[in-house]
Design a protein that fits this description.
Blueprint: H1 2-50, E1 59-62, E2 82-90, E3 93-96, E4 105-107, E5 111-113, E6 133-134, E7 137-138, E8 142-153, E9 156-165, E10 172-175, H2 183-192, H3 195-210
Antiparallel strand pairs: 1-2, 1-5, 2-3, 3-4, 6-7, 8-9, 9-10
């Protein structure tokens, strides 16, 4: 009889053990989820608390990882792109005085405050100065024309020049007619020949490769 009683109670004990294990596993999973949520919330709070508050005319370093550049490496872009805050659009976005051709609105995660009194080792000379005012408007000086191209926009074509602006880090593509009367374009043509010929050679080379 004792054996029979034990035999009857074994399934009940096994079931009770299984239920207890399931409860323990559920409790553990819930605790793990809660812990992960607490960690994520803590990290989010840290990021929010660490985010500096910007105001107009502040200077910031801009991370240009999302901006196409002609430079082969972007590792030092934080150190080589200091810009002025033109406007604070929201707690999370600012408008900067970036060169023409680059969308000027950036999330605050892409900028860092630029020290107004940096240590000597932090002083970077390769940053753009404020443009001079001519007739009450900002005037940007063309330092050099780096390249020219013909670009298709919709059904039309537009000739453009890759312009290196005086004091600016990143060159930008501009309409060729906007830089027609400048010494930099003359210097480019002295080195490479007439712009129209350069563009036609590019087109011919492209057609030859396709053929």
């Amino acid at each position: 009889m004792p054996l029979a009683i034990d035999a009857l109670t074994l399934p009940e004990k096994a079931g009770e053990t299984l239920v207890n294990r399931l409860r323990e596993a559920t409790d553990w999973a819930q605790a793990a989820i809660a812990s992960a949520q607490d960690y994520q919330e803590e990290q989010a709070n840290r990021r929010r608390q660490a985010a500096p508050v910007y105001k107009k005319d502040d200077w910031v370093w801009l991370n240009l990882r999302n901006v196409r550049t002609q430079r082969p490496s972007k590792k030092l872009d934080w150190l080589h792109a200091r810009y002025r805050v033109l406007d604070v659009l929201s707690p999370f976005t600012v408008r900067l005085d970036v060169p023409t051709g680059i969308h000027p609105v950036f999330h605050i995660e892409l900028v860092r405050p630029a020290a107004t009194d940096p240590f000597p080792s932090q002083i970077i000379d390769d940053t753009q100065p404020l443009p001079p005012l001519i007739d009450g408007e900002e005037e940007y000086e063309v330092e050099r024309i780096l390249a020219v191209r013909r670009r298709k926009i919709g059904r039309e074509y537009r000739d453009e020049a890759l312009v290196k602006w005086t004091g600016w880090v990143e060159p930008t593509w501009q309409r060729l007619d906007l830089v027609q009367n400048c010494a930099a374009l003359d210097a480019f043509e002295e080195q490479h020949g007439p712009v129209s010929d350069v563009i036609h050679h590019q087109i011919d080379a492209g057609n030859h490769e396709q053929g």
